[in-house]
């Protein structure tokens, strides 16, 4: 290799090393300038991930405790300790358990007492229907209630009771109120044709 070529290679190597050194100096300057921000950002990301993992773990533990308490209540519904644990770990599941227990009762007074304790709107609505159904006189009021889930069933049952009393015209009026989209509509049409004989 000639001296000229050697000089050229040396210049290229020095230029490459110079660029590397320049990049290191720039990176060092960037690090010094933004060190606190970068470390803070990394700490926030780390704490966020740790918080998410810990909260998921605690939530899973809570679900497991609630399920264990619920399983104990299914075998022994009178277990006060299991009721307390279920109520503290998962209040919605506790309300569902309570509803399951009282739904089997046929005493409107006990159902009304439980209704006052319920906070879930769907369970309250189902319990309201059951109370109205047991009292038989509250079906019309239930059917008129805003957002009643079992509105058409209440109207159907009310019409049936009217037919049993021989009030055919009133029963047909009730059956006409059942919407055509309801699953009870075909049954309502069949009952509408019944003349109470």
Strand content: under 5%
Quickly count the domains.
2
Mean pLDDT: 84
- Extended strand count: 0
Structural class: mainly alpha
Q: Name the assembly state.
A: single chain
Number of contiguous helices: 9
Approximate helicity band: over 70%
Order of helices and strands: HHHHHHHHH
Q: Determine the N-to-C terminus distance.
A: 122 Å
Shape: elongated
Show unreliable segments.
Answer: none
Largest sheet: none
How large, in whole angstroms, is the Cα Rg? 37 Å
Structure notes:
The protein has 197 residues and is mostly helical. It folds into two domains: 12-89; 136-197, no CATH class. The chain has helices spanning 3-75, 80-89, 91-102, 108-117, 121-135, 139-144, 151-164, 168-176, 185-192. The longest helix is centred in the first third of the chain and has 73 residues, at 3-75. It is elongated and about 125 Å long.
List its salient traits.
197 residues, mainly alpha, 2 domains, 9 helices, elongated
What's a quick, concise take on this entry?
This protein has 197 residues and is mainly alpha-helical. Helix content is 80%, strand content 0%.
Topology:
Layout: H1 3-75, H2 80-89, H3 91-102, H4 108-117, H5 121-135, H6 139-144, H7 151-164, H8 168-176, H9 185-192
């Amino acid at each position: 290799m000639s001296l000229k070529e050697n000089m050229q290679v040396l210049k290229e190597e020095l230029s490459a090393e110079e660029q590397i050194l320049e990049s290191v100096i720039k990176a060092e300057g960037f690090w010094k300038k933004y060190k606190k921000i970068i470390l803070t950002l990394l700490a926030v990301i780390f704490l966020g991930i740790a918080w998410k993992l810990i909260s998921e773990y605690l939530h899973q533990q809570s679900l497991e405790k609630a399920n264990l308490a619920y399983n104990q209540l299914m075998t022994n519904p009178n277990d006060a300790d299991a009721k307390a644990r279920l109520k503290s770990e998962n209040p919605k599941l506790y309300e569902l358990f309570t509803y399951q227990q009282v739904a089997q009762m046929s005493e409107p007074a006990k159902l009304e007492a439980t209704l006052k304790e319920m906070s879930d709107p769907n369970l309250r609505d189902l319990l309201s229907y059951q109370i109205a159904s047991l009292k038989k006189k509250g079906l019309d009021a239930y059917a008129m209630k805003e957002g009643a889930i079992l509105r058409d069933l209440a109207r159907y049952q009310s019409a049936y009771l009217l037919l049993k009393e021989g009030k055919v015209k009133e029963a047909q009026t009730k059956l006409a109120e059942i919407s055509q989209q309801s699953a009870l509509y075909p049954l309502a049409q069949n009952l509408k044709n019944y003349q109470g004989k």
